[in-house]
Amino acid sequence: IHHPAMAFIVRLQTSSGVKRLLFPNDSVTWKDLQLQVMDVTGVDVGSQVLTPGGRPPCKAKVSGAAESASLKSLKLQHGDMLKLEGAASRPATASIATPKPAVTVIRTFKPSERCQHGPRGRCLECVEVGGEDDEMKMEKNTGKRTRYCLHGPGVTCLHCNVHAGDAKAEVAEWLCNHPDNVFCPKCIPPDEEAEEKKVVTKIDKIPYKLWIKEKQAACKYKHAASMTCANCTEPEAPSYAGKKDCNRGHKPWPYGVCLNCAPPNALVRPQPYRHCDNLVLQANLIQDFYRQWMLKDNRVQKAGILFGFYSDENDTTFFKEGSIRAIIQGLYEPPQDSQPGGVRLLKDPKEETVQAVAAALGLEPVGWIITTRQREGEKYKGKVLMSGSEVRQASRFQERYRNAQGHSRFVTVVLEHGQNVEPLAYQVSDQCVALERDRAFSKPSDPYMMCVRTPDAGEMVATIIAHDKPLKPAEEFLPDDFIVKVIASMPKKPNFIFKHDSFPSNGSERDVRSHLAKYSSEDYLSKLSDFNLLCVLADMFNTPLIKKVCNAIRDKQQLDQKTKEELDNYFVQKNFI
User: CB under 8 Å to 547, separation ≥6 — which residues?
Assistant: First the structure.
């Protein structure tokens, strides 16, 4: 297969050497070939005896060929050799013999200014006679010729062909100069098996444990394994609060300051690691939460607390060594003031009870979820991942829920309304948590932006440097560099410890009565296996009794007879059964 713009070359073996005959394609006639042989050798058409040449000879059937037969029908292929016998070629300086008047051929091409052959020759520089003009043909190919092109109109090259500027174009087979039964780097097909093995998931952050391990590996040959240095020790939690009572012998701020008491500058940089790498969501919980938001009032945002547990990531196909997975088991909606530009969480009188039930189940707060409508714009450089208020709330959550090492694995899930609803998970950087803790931010005029707080009189506030530019007080900026992406997924085989998940977060006695009636055929351990139901029951009456049920659900054990009798008594007193 040859591109129309490629020259079809036939080699001609003569007594004076090998010459090349150039044609636009293999559809030219045998008469065109004879005329070009006459141009390059001076042998008249009637005196030419052409036979297959080469070692081994080509398979072309040229003996007794008709003048109107195409080269393709004669089995002539690109690069084949023909041998001129029966006549000696003329010298190169000899004049071209005038053809006999009887030889009449309709010529569809004529020599251009760039051609270096005779009037009957044919090359890539020839111009088509009649039809569309040259400018129209160039427009149909790729456009105008570049300053690197050395050819005439009507043809293309590496510099002006469509394949040179279009990365998605098909393979340019006309660039190949080899037989059809072999491949080269230009036309070799992709390895389908290798394409299937490619991991589609893009991981732009590494686990915190792996990040520390790589830092320590860099010091392997610098000092002994028992020693540590600034490069291989775990970083301390940053602090951007100045010391008010400095004992370095100077006057208090703002009349005096030193390096010991001045807050350090906050150079904003994307965090290379993350403390939680994968968040496993239960589809029923997320779908019901989203459905309730859409039915009630989707003009304002809605938030909920995610309860679950952390585990080490065993699957290293998509995740790296040291990855941490958070598995969601329950969703609780605390009291909140929902607004179009954010959610203000109110004081929850049931917080202690909910935390106690979660602890009895072996769960803990591992994240929070918030709904939002689509938000994007040129000002925000595209889509808004997290608004400024969401980043600040996530910072407060991560500061509150930390492990023994001072690191937070608390995750933020953003559920954006759109044509395709997909939960997206994030964390905020340790630097952002420290800045929010040390009161470096204030409320911006644009809820999607962050704002530098203006210090009070006599107060020291850290200078925030974003994109190598110090930010002024009350200046707003995008929070994107504070955001750390976390991979959100849903399991193929649900690992849910609860049998039910339909009970509302702030259910009433009527909801309890309806739930028990709906699942009256089940035993107590099954019908009470709902996170929000257990929280409501623990708040209504005997919390220690509900803890026994929670422990049985956690350990996957049956309730003893005494616990069942106590539940019967409580439900009868409340008229639940």
Answer: 356, 357, 360, 538
> Tokens 């110090």 label which residue?
470
Look at the chain and count its residues: 577
Partnered with residue 371 across adjacent β-strands are 415
- In sequence order, which ranges of 406-530 are alpha helices (DSSP H)? 430-437, 509-518, 524-527
DSSP 546-564: HHHHHHHHHHT-PPPHHHH
Q: Which residue has the tokens 């000002």?
A: 379
User: Which pairing describes strands 342-345 and 8-14: parallel, antiparallel, or unpaired?
Assistant: unpaired
Task: Give the residue from 389, 395, 375, 383 showing the smallest Cα distance to 342.
Answer: 389
pLDDT in tens, the chain (577 residues): 444 444 788 888 888 888 888 888 888 898 888 888 888 888 888 888 888 888 788 888 888 888 889 888 888 888 888 888 855 444 434 344 444 444 444 566 677 777 777 777 777 677 766 544 444 444 444 446 666 677 766 677 766 766 555 656 666 666 677 777 677 776 776 665 555 544 444 446 888 888 888 888 878 777 777 787 877 788 888 888 877 778 888 887 667 888 888 888 999 999 999 999 999 998 889 999 999 999 988 889 999 999 999 998 765 555 677 789 999 999 999 999 988 888 999 999 999 999 999 999 999 999 999 999 999 999 998 999 999 999 999 999 999 999 888 899 999 999 999 888 889 999 999 999 999 999 999 999 999 999 999 988 777 788 999 988 999 999 999 999 999 999 998 887 777 899 998 898 888 889 988 998 899 888 888 999 999 999 999 888 767 888 999 999 999 888 888 888 888 888 888 777 7
Q: What is the DSSP letter of 427?
A: E
DSSP string, 131-183: SS-HHHHHHHHTSSPPTT--S-TT---TTTSHHHH-TTSPP-GGG--S-TTS-
Taking CA atoms, 467 is separated from 383, 386, 454, 480, in Å, by 20, 19, 20, 12
Q: How far is CA 6 from the centre of its chain?
A: 39
Please check whether residue 76 is in contact with residue 22, taking contact to mean a CB–CB distance below 8 angstroms. no
The answer to whether 262 and 283 are in contact (CB under 8 A) is: no
